[in-house]
């Protein structure tokens, strides 16, 4: 069992930056692939970024490529999402998720554990 707790969300102006953190419980964090997803009101949950267990393979949605960076620190059981050049369309609840197979995937159904989400609001 893995428990995930996101933090770092908030209100930011267009063009600003935020860094989301996702702290995981359990001794097996370093074997999990991790992902970030987001869900805006009235929309389906969508993939944002993912990272494999060792941190050397990452994936990004086209909409965030070049602006967002996913990283992990296995010594701290934490995965991060650095978000720069934020746009109003980035407004959503952001969720982190853990994939026990370690790959980090782009589809929500590939993940076994989810956090409760953190709100990101980008104002214009």
Description of the structure:
The protein is mainly β. The chain is 0% helix and 48% strand. The protein is built from no helices and 11 strands. The protein has strands at residues 4-7, 10-13, 18-24, 33-39, 46-51, 58-60, 68-73, 78-83, 92-99, 113-114, 118-123. The strands form 2 sheets. Strands 2, 4, 5, 6, 9, 10 and 11 form a 7-stranded mixed sheet that branches. A 4-stranded antiparallel sheet has the order 1-3-8-7, with no helix packed on it. Strand 4 (33-39) and strand 5 (46-51) form a beta hairpin. The radius of gyration is 13 Å and the shape is globular. The model has no long low-confidence stretch (mean pLDDT 96).
Could you give the topology of this structure?
Blueprint: E1 4-7, E2 10-13, E3 18-24, E4 33-39, E5 46-51, E6 58-60, E7 68-73, E8 78-83, E9 92-99, E10 113-114, E11 118-123
Parallel strand pairs: 2-11
Antiparallel strand pairs: 1-3, 3-8, 4-5, 4-9, 5-6, 7-8, 9-10, 9-11
């Amino acid at each position: 069992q893995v428990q995930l707790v996101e933090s770092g969300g908030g209100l930011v102006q267009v063009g600003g930056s935020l860094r989301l953190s996702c702290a995981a419980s359990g001794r097996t964090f370093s074997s999990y692939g991790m992902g970030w997803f987001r869900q805006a009101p009235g929309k389906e949950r969508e993939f944002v970024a993912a990272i494999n267990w060792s941190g050397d393979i990452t994936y990004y949605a086209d909409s965030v490529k070049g602006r967002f960076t996913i990283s992990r620190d296995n010594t701290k059981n934490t995965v991060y999402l650095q978000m720069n050049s934020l746009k109003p369309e980035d407004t959503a609840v952001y969720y982190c998720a853990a994939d026990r197979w370690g790959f980090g995937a782009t589809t929500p159904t590939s993940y076994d554990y989810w956090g409760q989400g953190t709100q990101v609001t980008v104002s214009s």
